[in-house]
Prior knowledge:
Strand content: 15-25%
Shape: elongated
Number of helices: 6
Largest sheet: 3 strands, mixed
CATH superfamily: CBS-domain
Helix content: 40-55%
Order of helices and strands: HEHEEHHHEEH
Number of domains: 1
Radius of gyration: 18 Å
Strand order of the largest sheet: 1-2-3
Bound molecules: adenosine monophosphate
Distance between the termini: 27 Å
CATH architecture: Roll
Amino acid sequence: xxxxxILRDKGENVVSLATxxxxxxxxxxxxxxxxxxxxxxxxxxxxxxxxxxxxxxxAIHTHGEGVFGKxxxxxxxxxxxxxxxxDPIVAIMGMMTAKRFRHVPVLENGKLVGxxxxxxxxxxxIEETEAEAEALRKYIAL
Length: 142
Ligand code: AMP
């Protein structure tokens, strides 16, 4: 199973903000949309970075209340690891575990076509495992 199978269910919508938006707008996006990360885009719409809950926690630890004077561009992680729709889901699981992040934007021919989270990956794997178990049960009962 591949990243494109998750996107087929989930769609291509990615929640994003421009680098100069205040951090309060990033918090509002995450809270209202029930998501853990927002993609940050540059003036030309390209990926400038990613801002996750963890970046906000670290920034509060570092800046205290001063965090609200920051922009999302100042708090984001600028070096973003991406994947492609053709990547196997097990490879993305391995990458999330090894690199300790839970969100991966998906690019196809340089164009953003979605973002998958660890929640999407786990949901997909559970469904896949249940389908395999059901197929085996039916096979044994033959
Ligand atoms: P997360 O586990 O996704 O909440 O993120 C943990 C840390 O990794 C945060 O500093 C994020 O900004 C960063 N991060 C999340 N996703 C990515 C990614 N795809 N590439 C690089 N850094 C990321």
